[in-house]
Amino acid sequence: MNTTNSTSLLPAAKNAINRIKAEHRALARILGAMQALVARCREPGSKPDYELFEFMLRYIENVPARLHHPKEDQVLFPAIARLPGGGKTLAQELERDHARGEPMLAELRRAFHAFRDGGANALNQLATAVDEFAEFYWWHMRKEEQQLLPFALENLAEEDWQRVDSAFGDNIDPLFGAALTDEYRRLYQHITELTPQPLKSLLEGAAPGPSKHE
Description:
By secondary structure, the chain is an all-alpha fold. The chain has one domain: Four Helix Bundle (Hemerythrin (Met), subunit A). Helices cover 76% and strands 0% of the residues. Helix 4 (64-81) runs antiparallel to helix 7. The longest helix is centred in the middle third of the chain and has 34 residues, at 122-155. It starts with a helix and ends in a 9-residue tail after the last helix.
């Protein structure tokens, strides 16, 4: 087994951890902006920006759920599960979190459609869905950063880190990465153009907030 000090010096470990944390920060920014956007709908005279919310929701559906989580489920978690000292239990807990998040994301979209269609009490239902989804993922990301990554840093071998780094090295965040595909370039432009000024700072630097799950 590697010690924390020796493993922390491995370029593959540093690259992988930095990329995982960067992807967490990107999701946190979107979630924070989404909460703030819903909160603005309660202000007198405000007009809901359905298009902006749709773009934010599409980002969550198409990037963390289909790009970030599969790399964890297929590469990082199996490497952790092979380790003694609770690795399997931790990996299984995090895999269950991913599975639990899927119906929550589906409920978030359902609540958004109900709000967009003018359903009764729909704003309260949307706010609840957004808050529950955000709280859950902030809690999940903290568990990964405070439990999983330190455990991995202490125990994974160099070849494991190389596989993890290679998997996450293929990830290019279409909104916050350096390279943008045409589809997400338009999505990024829409988000930055349509986001009211008070919310832009959330897109630029929001960090996970307090969680009732702790």
